[in-house]
Structures
1.
Amino acid sequence: MLSIAWAPLYAHPLPDNHRFPMLKYELLPEQLLREGTVPESAFFAPVAPPAPDILRTHDADYYQRLCTGGLTRQEERATGFPWSVQLIEREVTILGGTLECVRRALQSGIALNIAGGTHHAFRDRGEGFCLLNDQAAAADYLLAHPELGVRKVLIVDLDVHQGNGTARIFQDEPRVFTFSMHGARNYPHRKEHSDLDLPLPDNTDDASYLALLRSTLPRLLDEVQPDFVFYLSGVDVLATDKLGHLALSREGCRQRDEFVLGLCHRHHLPVVVCMGGGYSPRIADIIEAHANTFRAAAALW
């Protein structure tokens, strides 16, 4: 059975201009339960992790100012969110969810976070609706605990936006390989250098996208030899996405997830999946595409 991190505060109230993108955190669990993809017992309530599990990745001064409302106005604008105590509680809990997913995936093979994938957060700052980098903190947690047996981590970032914060955090860490396949002409305008970047032209369709992914990821598994995989399964690659500029169908997005998860399953690699972005005007397009990720996982594990 799948393990899925979810808490009501994932969808905590925000000003009206932020409200729509947050609806998926309420609706996706309801959809998965209603259709019978997972039982209610699959969900667990994440909790805030100990501060050392955050400070292993994030600068202490930044984290202290983040928690106490001490960001400058410019820093706050860069995150895209108005600061609040509830927002910080949400971000810390999301990170805790990904950490717990790591522990569960080591036992069962896979765990998923309804939220997470906050790949624009750097060590010392937040950007692009990302305040704390949950997958980076979880990778650092694995490396800090050698008794867990993870010597090499592969981060597969298939959100439409480059994982710039993650790339920068691990630029000098050979034990973490960062792979980002993203829109070339998309946020962030100043890209960092992942270990492997595959920038895609506007209007890349299913056939081109899937051919490139299928020719790349198996080779990476052979070359990197990871012991653990993080998968950022953003659905902002859809043609319907108002921010993405790519042209995948929901079927193409489903095949993407089935390929990535199937490859991890066949190689007996534990994997943690985080949802990442999705900004289609119709919430049904977002929910259905995200639900396909869970359906693919449930069919394999």
Note: The radius of gyration is 17 Å.
2.
Amino acid sequence: MSTAEVRPTRQRADKARNRSHILDVAEEFFSQHGVGGSLETIAKRAGVGPGTLYRHFPTREALIAALLQARYEQLFDRFGIIKAESSDSNHALEQWLDALGEYVTAFDGLPAPLRVALSEESSPLAITCQAFITATDELLTAAQRDGYARPWIRSRELFLSVLATAWLRGAALADESSSRALRAILRSGWAEPAPTAE
């Protein structure tokens, strides 16, 4: 192998190593500071210049999408298991919404870029969000067919409800039971039947 052939191979290996190292540092940093943390600080901690970071990940959303890739694959493995093992469409939908809830709380602040991605097709997270909605729709349709879910409910709103519940965790007024209570409210509604006159 000539020197000219060795150099590009080494450059590709260095590039892959840099990318992997940036992702490791970003994972730790976002776990501590949330997804709104400084990208320049991530670059500094990774020992690379901001330009190197942006060459690998041109936007914050691209970095988040790369970090979430492994979790995304694990989540859809779980989706397959839920579909295969649950004979109860109501239970299957509940399990999937719980799994989605775990995914969107991987990092503090994650619901915000996912919500934005729903209306920005150019976002690297947009395809991810659409895949979640499509999977939710499959389980929701089965639950509606079996009479467990109201016919006017849409999968998009269910996904948004997962994001809303995840966002609530960081709200100033929230306590340990708030997320659980909101999930229950979203599932069954808050209104009681009108009292009957005696």
Note: Residues 64-188 form a domain with the Tetracycline Repressor; domain 2 fold (CATH 1.10.357).
3.
Amino acid sequence: MTERRTMIVTGASRGIGAAVALGAARRGWAVGVNYRTQPDEAEAVVRSIRNDGGEAVALAADLGDEAAIVAMFEAADRQLPPLGCLVNNAAGVAPRRLRLTDLDAAAINALLAVNVTGAMVAAREAVRRMATAGGGAGGSIVNVSSLAARHGAPNLYIHYAASKAAVDTFTHGLALEVAADGIRVNAVRPGLIDTEIHERAGMASRVEKVAPRLPMKRAGRPDEVADAILWLASEEASYVTGAILDVGGGA
């Protein structure tokens, strides 16, 4: 990049989001580190970036709240350079292994509010700032989907899988809608990644159980997913839009 621009990473206080934020700063981006309930962890990511000479701020917002998302982008407008990329990484997860018969509408809607509606609202705010038709300089959006969208996650978290399938369709549609406005829209679909998400979902031993069954015989690392996201966000992927890149060790 010849001129520093901002990348907002949602859900960036830990896991894949933190790896994206740290990697983006090393590549010259100013970074908006979004968090919902982990201010200390988000500030630790910000400190790490600043200690290495980068530019970052922590941005509090619940991605299930439209007003909070709008306020987050407005805070980034005030504190950081112009927006050049949004990474839609924040996601709601099931609190434990669930079948559809265990779910009520409130649980389904709470997850969809973050994974689908929140991602779409965040993308809307990014497009409003980056679209060349509105005076922006273009940019990119990278949505974080999941290989669960492909296999459906039966007997596990079927509503999460369905939400990520919606993200895939949204990625394709938005890519076509904003291509002429200088904005590229792509998605990464991680498979089994060694993060705390499994513990949050009540399956702390899932990585150890599932990894040996994968073609590569191991879980992925957050930085491996981050590298794919950052490539899609970069000018190296300047002719790539509407793509969904699987990062799942062959699964």
Note: Strands lie at 6-9, 30-35, 56-60, 83-88, 139-144, 183-190, 244-247.
